[in-house]
Amino acid sequence: MTLKTIARLAGVLMLSAGLAGCMDVTAEIDVTSETTGKATTIMTMGAEFYPMIKQMAEAGGEEAAAASADAFCKDEGDVLTENADGSATCTSVKEGDLTAITSDDDGPNEDTTFTVVSPGVVRVAFKTGEMKNQVTQGEEDAQTAAMMKAYFEGHNATIRIKGKKIIETNMTKIGDNTAETVIPFTDLLDGKADLPDELFAVVDTR
Protein backbone atom coordinates (compact mmCIF):
# COMPACT_ATOMS: atom_id res chain seq x y z
CA MET A 1 0.00 0.00 0.00
CA THR A 2 1.02 3.60 -0.45
CA LEU A 3 1.18 5.94 2.53
CA LYS A 4 -2.26 7.46 2.79
CA THR A 5 -3.73 9.54 5.60
CA ILE A 6 -1.44 8.67 8.49
CA ALA A 7 -3.77 9.92 11.18
CA ARG A 8 -6.57 7.69 9.77
CA LEU A 9 -4.51 4.56 9.35
CA ALA A 10 -5.37 2.86 12.61
CA GLY A 11 -9.06 3.63 12.20
CA VAL A 12 -9.16 2.12 8.71
CA LEU A 13 -7.53 -1.05 9.99
CA MET A 14 -10.04 -1.29 12.81
CA LEU A 15 -12.93 -1.13 10.36
CA SER A 16 -11.50 -4.10 8.44
CA ALA A 17 -10.57 -6.14 11.49
CA GLY A 18 -11.76 -9.40 9.97
CA LEU A 19 -8.99 -9.26 7.37
CA ALA A 20 -6.41 -6.98 8.98
CA GLY A 21 -6.39 -8.51 12.45
CA CYS A 22 -3.17 -9.34 14.27
CA MET A 23 -1.40 -6.51 12.51
CA ASP A 24 1.20 -3.96 13.59
CA VAL A 25 1.58 -0.73 11.64
CA THR A 26 4.35 1.85 11.52
CA ALA A 27 3.89 5.11 9.61
CA GLU A 28 7.09 7.15 9.39
CA ILE A 29 8.04 10.47 7.85
CA ASP A 30 11.72 11.38 7.49
CA VAL A 31 11.98 15.11 6.79
CA THR A 32 15.05 15.82 4.64
CA SER A 33 14.50 19.51 3.78
CA GLU A 34 11.93 22.27 4.09
CA THR A 35 9.92 20.74 1.27
CA THR A 36 11.03 17.12 0.81
CA GLY A 37 11.11 13.87 2.71
CA LYS A 38 10.56 10.13 2.70
CA ALA A 39 7.39 8.42 3.89
CA THR A 40 7.54 4.77 4.88
CA THR A 41 4.63 2.55 5.86
CA ILE A 42 5.37 -0.87 7.35
CA MET A 43 2.52 -3.30 8.05
CA THR A 44 3.15 -6.71 9.60
CA MET A 45 0.36 -9.28 9.52
CA GLY A 46 0.73 -12.08 12.06
CA ALA A 47 1.03 -15.77 11.29
CA GLU A 48 -2.52 -16.23 12.60
CA PHE A 49 -3.96 -14.43 9.57
CA TYR A 50 -1.47 -14.19 6.72
CA PRO A 51 -1.63 -17.85 5.59
CA MET A 52 -5.42 -17.54 5.37
CA ILE A 53 -5.20 -14.41 3.23
CA LYS A 54 -2.58 -16.02 1.00
CA GLN A 55 -4.68 -19.17 0.56
CA MET A 56 -7.73 -17.11 -0.42
CA ALA A 57 -5.70 -15.29 -3.06
CA GLU A 58 -4.26 -18.52 -4.47
CA ALA A 59 -7.69 -20.17 -4.58
CA GLY A 60 -8.85 -17.60 -7.11
CA GLY A 61 -12.36 -16.37 -7.75
CA GLU A 62 -13.75 -12.84 -7.65
CA GLU A 63 -14.46 -12.84 -3.93
CA ALA A 64 -11.01 -14.12 -3.03
CA ALA A 65 -9.32 -11.66 -5.35
CA ALA A 66 -11.26 -8.75 -3.90
CA ALA A 67 -10.54 -9.83 -0.33
CA SER A 68 -6.83 -10.25 -0.87
CA ALA A 69 -6.56 -6.99 -2.79
CA ASP A 70 -8.34 -5.03 -0.09
CA ALA A 71 -6.58 -6.77 2.75
CA PHE A 72 -2.87 -6.64 2.33
CA CYS A 73 0.02 -5.40 0.23
CA LYS A 74 -1.65 -5.10 -3.17
CA ASP A 75 -1.15 -1.41 -3.97
CA GLU A 76 1.37 -0.23 -6.53
CA GLY A 77 4.86 0.01 -5.02
CA ASP A 78 4.15 -2.33 -2.11
CA VAL A 79 6.94 -4.79 -1.29
CA LEU A 80 5.89 -8.04 0.39
CA THR A 81 8.25 -10.03 2.61
CA GLU A 82 7.12 -13.43 3.87
CA ASN A 83 8.76 -14.13 7.23
CA ALA A 84 10.01 -17.46 8.54
CA ASP A 85 7.46 -17.50 11.37
CA GLY A 86 4.53 -17.43 8.94
CA SER A 87 3.86 -13.71 9.24
CA ALA A 88 4.34 -11.22 6.41
CA THR A 89 5.55 -7.64 6.18
CA CYS A 90 4.41 -5.08 3.64
CA THR A 91 6.64 -2.04 3.07
CA SER A 92 5.79 1.04 1.05
CA VAL A 93 8.22 3.92 0.50
CA LYS A 94 7.52 7.25 -1.16
CA GLU A 95 10.05 10.06 -1.59
CA GLY A 96 9.68 13.61 -2.81
CA ASP A 97 7.58 16.65 -1.97
CA LEU A 98 6.23 16.42 1.58
CA THR A 99 2.67 17.21 0.57
CA ALA A 100 2.72 14.71 -2.29
CA ILE A 101 4.07 11.78 -0.28
CA THR A 102 1.34 12.19 2.34
CA SER A 103 -1.54 12.69 -0.10
CA ASP A 104 -4.34 10.14 -0.28
CA ASP A 105 -6.42 9.14 -3.26
CA ASP A 106 -8.63 12.22 -2.91
CA GLY A 107 -5.77 14.71 -2.88
CA PRO A 108 -3.80 16.56 -0.20
CA ASN A 109 -4.05 15.16 3.31
CA GLU A 110 -5.70 17.71 5.59
CA ASP A 111 -4.75 15.74 8.70
CA THR A 112 -1.01 16.12 8.10
CA THR A 113 0.59 19.57 8.02
CA PHE A 114 4.10 20.84 7.34
CA THR A 115 4.97 24.36 8.48
CA VAL A 116 8.33 26.04 7.91
CA VAL A 117 8.97 27.87 11.18
CA SER A 118 12.44 29.18 10.24
CA PRO A 119 15.00 28.46 7.51
CA GLY A 120 15.55 24.70 7.41
CA VAL A 121 13.20 24.04 10.34
CA VAL A 122 9.86 22.28 9.74
CA ARG A 123 6.99 21.57 12.11
CA VAL A 124 5.23 18.30 11.26
CA ALA A 125 1.82 17.70 12.81
CA PHE A 126 -0.82 14.96 12.65
CA LYS A 127 -4.40 15.58 13.75
CA THR A 128 -5.71 12.63 15.78
CA GLY A 129 -9.44 13.35 15.90
CA GLU A 130 -10.35 11.52 12.69
CA MET A 131 -8.47 8.43 13.77
CA LYS A 132 -10.33 8.24 17.07
CA ASN A 133 -13.68 8.95 15.40
CA GLN A 134 -13.30 6.21 12.80
CA VAL A 135 -12.52 3.63 15.44
CA THR A 136 -15.61 4.61 17.42
CA GLN A 137 -17.77 4.42 14.29
CA GLY A 138 -16.53 0.88 13.69
CA GLU A 139 -17.92 -0.46 16.95
CA GLU A 140 -21.42 -1.44 15.91
CA ASP A 141 -22.21 -3.56 18.97
CA ALA A 142 -20.60 -5.09 22.04
CA GLN A 143 -20.03 -8.46 20.37
CA THR A 144 -18.26 -6.89 17.41
CA ALA A 145 -16.15 -4.71 19.70
CA ALA A 146 -15.11 -7.73 21.76
CA MET A 147 -14.11 -9.62 18.61
CA MET A 148 -12.06 -6.70 17.36
CA LYS A 149 -10.27 -6.37 20.69
CA ALA A 150 -9.33 -10.03 20.53
CA TYR A 151 -7.92 -9.57 17.03
CA PHE A 152 -5.80 -6.57 18.00
CA GLU A 153 -4.67 -7.49 21.52
CA GLY A 154 -0.94 -6.80 21.79
CA HIS A 155 -0.70 -4.99 18.43
CA ASN A 156 0.10 -1.34 17.90
CA ALA A 157 0.10 1.58 15.50
CA THR A 158 3.32 3.59 15.60
CA ILE A 159 3.55 7.13 14.24
CA ARG A 160 7.14 8.32 13.81
CA ILE A 161 8.81 11.55 12.69
CA LYS A 162 12.50 11.67 11.85
CA GLY A 163 15.00 14.30 10.75
CA LYS A 164 18.52 15.52 11.30
CA LYS A 165 17.50 16.88 14.73
CA ILE A 166 14.24 17.00 16.70
CA ILE A 167 14.00 20.39 18.40
CA GLU A 168 10.59 20.08 20.06
CA THR A 169 7.86 17.45 20.24
CA ASN A 170 4.91 16.18 22.29
CA MET A 171 5.78 12.63 21.24
CA THR A 172 8.41 10.36 22.79
CA LYS A 173 11.85 11.53 21.76
CA ILE A 174 14.31 8.79 20.84
CA GLY A 175 17.85 10.05 20.51
CA ASP A 176 18.35 13.37 18.76
CA ASN A 177 16.64 12.62 15.46
CA THR A 178 13.45 10.63 16.14
CA ALA A 179 10.08 11.23 17.79
CA GLU A 180 7.37 8.58 17.94
CA THR A 181 4.09 7.61 19.55
CA VAL A 182 3.05 3.98 19.96
CA ILE A 183 -0.72 3.51 20.17
CA PRO A 184 -2.14 0.14 21.28
CA PHE A 185 -5.09 -0.74 19.07
CA THR A 186 -7.06 -1.95 22.09
CA ASP A 187 -6.72 1.49 23.72
CA LEU A 188 -8.31 3.03 20.64
CA LEU A 189 -11.15 0.54 20.77
CA ASP A 190 -11.73 1.16 24.46
CA GLY A 191 -11.57 4.92 24.02
CA LYS A 192 -8.64 4.98 26.43
CA ALA A 193 -5.95 6.20 24.05
CA ASP A 194 -4.49 9.30 25.69
CA LEU A 195 -3.84 11.30 22.54
CA PRO A 196 -3.61 15.07 22.19
CA ASP A 197 -5.55 16.79 19.43
CA GLU A 198 -2.39 16.65 17.36
CA LEU A 199 0.94 14.89 17.48
CA PHE A 200 3.84 17.09 16.38
CA ALA A 201 7.59 17.38 16.08
CA VAL A 202 9.75 20.33 15.04
CA VAL A 203 12.58 19.08 12.82
CA ASP A 204 15.84 20.90 12.05
CA THR A 205 16.91 19.66 8.61
CA ARG A 206 20.15 21.69 8.39
Report what the structure shows:
There is one protein chain. The protein has 206 residues and is an alpha+beta fold. It contains eight helices and eleven strands. Strand 1 and strand 2 form a beta hairpin.
Write the layout of secondary structure elements.
Layout: H1 9-15, H2 17-20, E1 23-31, E2 36-45, H3 50-59, H4 62-71, E3 79-82, E4 88-97, H5 98-101, E5 112-118, E6 121-127, H6 129-137, H7 142-152, E7 156-162, E8 165-169, E9 172-174, E10 178-184, H8 185-190, E11 198-204
Parallel strand pairs: 1-7
Antiparallel strand pairs: 1-2, 2-4, 3-4, 5-6, 6-11, 7-10, 8-11, 9-10
Shape: globular
| Counted beta strands | 11
Strand adjacency order, main sheet: 3-4-2-1-7-10-9
Q: If you average the pLDDT, what whole number results?
A: 79
Estimate the strand proportion: 35-45%
Give the helix/strand class. alpha+beta
Number of helices: 8
Helix content: 25-40%
As a whole number of angstroms, the C-alpha radius of gyration is: 17 Å
Detail the poorly predicted runs: 1-8, 14-20, 65-70
- What characterizes the major β-sheet? 7 strands, mixed
**Strand/helix succession:** HHEEHHEEHEEHHEEEEHE
Would you summarize the structure shown here?
The chain is an alpha+beta fold and 206 residues long. The chain has helices at 9-15, 17-20, 50-59, 62-71, 98-101, 129-137, 142-152, 185-190; strands at 23-31, 36-45, 79-82, 88-97, 112-118, 121-127, 156-162, 165-169, 172-174, 178-184, 198-204. It contains eight helices and eleven strands.
